[in-house]
Structure of Golgi SNAP receptor complex member 1:
Amino acid sequence: MSKTISSSFVTVRGQAISLETQTDSLLSRYSTFAQTTSSEQTGKEKKLDTQIENTLKKRQDIIDSLNDICNENPSISASKLSQLQRHKEILQEHWKNFQNIRSSIQQERNRLNLLFSVKNDIAQHNSNTNINDEEEYIQDESRRIDQSHNVVDRLISQAWETRDHFTAQNNVLNNVNNKTLQVLQRIPGLNHLLGKINTRRKKNAVILASVMTICILLLFFTW
């Protein structure tokens, strides 16, 4: 009976040792996801996470079986009890490592998602700022165009006023000329008198010019 219990213990313990080795390998692979975390859990990561958790639960079942074997045999050796305790400690360590790696991956994923969110917010803010700048620029240009149109309108208005003023002056001069002609036509001999006056002025101018020329020549020759 003792040999049967011992053989059963060794067989079940062999399964525990094999799964412990397998768990070490799985945890090593799982830790790489903490270094190269993506914003979303990949299918490979999820599959490995589930595999490790199932393996740890299976090991717990095996330890429970070993514990039952020990309880059913009060005379079991102290070495086997020590081995059982060691398997329990290793299982606890593996659970702890698994939880730590899983937590690290999640923290890194949260950090990446927060970073992406901040970048998106900044990009959105810059996009809105650019839109606002473009709208403000268009409004400024519209105001400048309106001001230019107002200036042109004022210049055109002033040009029309100047034109009207010149037209009015031209009408006044035409009226004066017409009245002068009418006066000259009404007073007989006035044109003749004015002509004589102009002729006398011309003669006086010629005489004055001749006298000045003679004086200059006399001064030149007598100097």
In short: The longest helix spans residues 78-186. The chain is about 90% helix and 0% strand. Residues 1-128 form one domain. The mean pLDDT is 80.
